[in-house]
Structure prediction request, 143 residues.
Amino acid sequence: MATTTNRYLSYPAAAAGISRASSGGAACSFSAYTEVVPATTITATYYIAGLTWAWHTPLAAVDTTYEWIIELATGAAASEVLIIQVPGSVRNDTAVGFAPSNYVIFPEPKEVAANTRISVRVAYSLLTTSNTISGLKILYQTA
Prediction:
């Protein structure tokens, strides 16, 4: 992988990012998967270098630490295989609610074969579906 001529791209590019609500079934339980990159969309080997998203703070939960895990997986629907796990936590100290954006660059890009489907799921520390990860996009580069 060359380092001087590559460029970073995002997916979805011009469209709004992906939204995924936490499961709400139980604290720290995973949601269902939501497709981020359909199969046959990125037609060359690519390297996932990072992830960006926004999350929404519930208004009633001041002084609460929120913890989540975002998982990226490859494979067909109902046959996903985990490739990247992104943990995070934030402490909310306001009653007004806000939607901070997050941007994570991975220490080593994850190689993904051409034409591979990518999906995402979320686990959230509170028993709720009111917290939704939104605007989720992957940052990638091609070989």
Observations:
- The chain has one domain: 11-142.
- The domain at 11-142 is CATH 2.60.40 (Immunoglobulin-like).
